[in-house]
Structures are given as structure tokens and as C-alpha cells.
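ok posting inputs for the zinc ion job
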Amino acid sequence: MVEMDNLAFIRERFSEFYDKNIDRVEVPKSIESREFGFTLFKENVMVRHKGFLKAEDLKEFIKRNVPSNVYYSAAYYSMPEAKMDEKGWIGSDLFFDIDADHIPTECNKEHDVWTCKNCGLKGRGIAPNKCPKCGNESFDERTWPCEICLETARAETMKLTDMLTSDLGFSIKDVKCAFSGHRGYHVQVESDEVLRLDSVARKEIVDYVTGTGVDAIFHGLEVISSGRVRMLTGPGLDDFGWRGRAARGAYDFLLTATARDLISLGLRKNIVEEIIANRDAILESWKTVGPWNIIKGLGLEGWRRIIQRGITLQSAKIDTVVTVDVHRLIRLPGTLHGKTGLLKVSFSASEIEEFDPLKEAVAFKGGEVKVYVEEAPKFRLGDEVFGPFEKQTANLPISAAIFLLSKNAGRVIS
Ligand SMILES: [Zn+2]
Ligand SMILES: [Zn+2]
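and the output
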């Protein structure tokens, strides 16, 4: 929980922000059919089943109530304010959530901390399922949007948007991206084709983008015999869909694979040595006839495992539950994230490579405030780098102060 004094300070800044910048709030299309939800600073409970007929009503509500988080439904309803089973579901945008929480990075052991809510035991990295000391299952977790985690999330997002446009045929203008304001990205398809898809159909899309069930033996990896000659063949780098993705993933894997990486696939030591000694020849031949018969003793099963690693590399690590849920509430673009004070900022899928989340999402400009910081890793906002901090006071711009206070990592002095 964030301390009361901090909450009052943050709420005051959020209020000023919305007073001046209410038009940054992006009103969703068909606002009258959307359900809205909010958390407020005082009671940290979700107020949902709210509806608005006009953009002005929504903006007025936000200015008056200053929510800590603003959400809306990816779904369209005939009666958004009714109880869940009486809303009259019309359809839903196709929505994907990519969050560093679901992508294990090495750096989380450095910057993320958890505290057992029962016995107070502290640890680093992702919280365990059970406290190793007392067995309790709930934790206070403090996670940070570090540059490495955000880059990892961006890479996953790029794989996803590429599959949506190249393989599934969505127009790039229908694929909207957004930085969530914390540790990840959102991708949303607003198109009539997806509107009526039920959860089962959405699960099929999830399986496609995560490469679930994709296996090289269904994608061109096979033994072909002609007379006495048995030859192996497999997927090409330029093939369409998963066939090409599997090949490109395996190519990328072999480009840098160490002996240990290859042995972890269960390949024999002498085969691994052969692969490493012939690495260049394998990669080069993939551009023409294919590398399938270069290494004696590396047969269908060995190649299948190598390609499987490639499939894992090419799959997009999304939060699968979110996409399947056709009633999901999602953060409204142009509103502030209660855990960071950063904005959810939307942008076009074609801009993703250049997009700098820690610059574009900074909502509070200027100002300076004295903060006591308990503990925080080094972080960047805009062009400025702050910290690391440990039990010290610092004069910080409002954006950095809000960021730390929202994480409950410090308190305002005076
Ligand atoms: Zn404990
Ligand atoms: Zn990180």
C-alpha cells in the first residue's frame, strides 16, 4: 500500500494533469457501447459497469473524480451499465497484452523485490508461489520498468504485429500499439472481421501467435526417398507463415548457438562438434538447397529439436488469458497509470521501432520536489537518468518523484 501522504500528493498532481490535459484522453470509438471501470485513490477498489454517452461526460467524470486508473471494455454492449450477463454483448476488439511480468528477464533479480505479507521475508526477482519461510501465498511486489525489460517486451510486440499483418492479413492501420504506462505494450485490432469472434476463435489466434502446437514435421521437415537414396528436407527461410518463421528462428539460433545450447537439446557431443565446425556452411546452404544433409548423423529428430528452439524464439510471449477474455477491461490510452504516473501512449504499429516509451509517456513536466527514497534502482525518464537510491534524500523533477512515490519507494519531505 502507498502511504496516505503520498497518495494525497500524487492525487493532487493527477488532478492538475487532467485539468490541463483532459484532451489527451483518447475516447474509444462507440463510447456509448463501452463499459468503463476506475480505481480511486482512497479505496483501492475497482468501480466498474459505468457507461458514458458522450466524450464530454467521460472527461468530466475523470476531472471530477481523479481516478488512479481508468479502464474501458474491449467489448461493445447494448447496455454497458447492466450486470455482466445482462449487458448484451455485441462484439469485442481483438486485444493483446505483452508485459515484462510474463517474460522472464535476468535483470528482474536485480530490480524487482517482493515482501511476504505475513512474515515480512524479502527476496529479489519474481515472487515465489509460497513464502519459503512461512508458507503464506500473498506478497507485496515492487517491479520496475527497466530498459532491458521494456526492450524485451518491444521485441515480443514486434513479432506479434508482424504475424498479425504478414500472416493473418490485418491492415497495419487496424493494428494499434500502445505503451501500457508500466512494463509492457498493448496491441489492439479494431476491425469488423474480429468483432464477433468468440473465446474459442480468439484462442486459435493465441495459439498461432504463441506457436503452440507448431512442429517442424508438419512444416516441411521430412525424409524423402527415391530408390535407395533417403534424403532429408525441411522448411525454407522465405516460406510463408510458421514454416518460414520456424526456419528463420532455427537459423538465428544456430547463428550464435554454443555447444552447451546444442547439448541442452539432447544432441550427441560428436554431432554438436560437427555442427559448430560447419556452422557457416549450414547457414549458407539454407539460402539455397537447405542444410539438411550436411551433418552425417543429424537426422530428422535432431533437426526437429533445433527447429523447435527456433519456433520458441519466433513465438510472441503474450499474456494468453487476456486475449481470450471477451469482457476484459483495458487501460484507456491517454490516462495515467497509478503505479508509475506515466501515460498509456498509443502509436501506430509502423512506429514501434523508434518509439521511446520512457520519453513519450512522461506526463509531468518540470517542477522539483524533495523526496526521501527508501530504495530504487537506476531509472530513466525522458533524457534524464536517476538513482540508484538507497535511504537518501534527493531533489527530483515531479515526474521522477511521482514515479517513486507511486511505487511506494519513498516519501515527500516538507
Ligand atoms: Zn512469509
Ligand atoms: Zn529489467
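notes: The chain has a mean pLDDT of 95. The two ends are 21 Å apart (CA to CA).
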